[in-house]
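Ticket #76: bound-state structure for zinc ion.
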Amino acid sequence: MFKCYFCQGKTEIKNVDVDFRWGNKLFVIQDVPVEICIQCGERYYSAEVSKKLDDLVKNKAKNPLNTLEVPVFNWQ
Ligand SMILES: [Zn+2]
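RESOLUTION: The complex was predicted; output attached.
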């Protein structure tokens, strides 16, 4: 079991949706098994998961399951 770097809380693997920024495009990958701190919610991506997210975005960028519209705002 891994301990959270920030709060020393316990972490567990949960399947969550991950927002992944690639250049000026935003990708959402569903059901990614990510290690999450159950106390503060910090997410930890293993090297294996990061690599697979990378590959997914590169290989399937032109063939997504679904496309979401993302509103963009300026702070001021
Ligand atoms: Zn934590």
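RESOLUTION NOTES: The first strand starts at residue 11 and ends at 22.
TICKET STATUS: resolved
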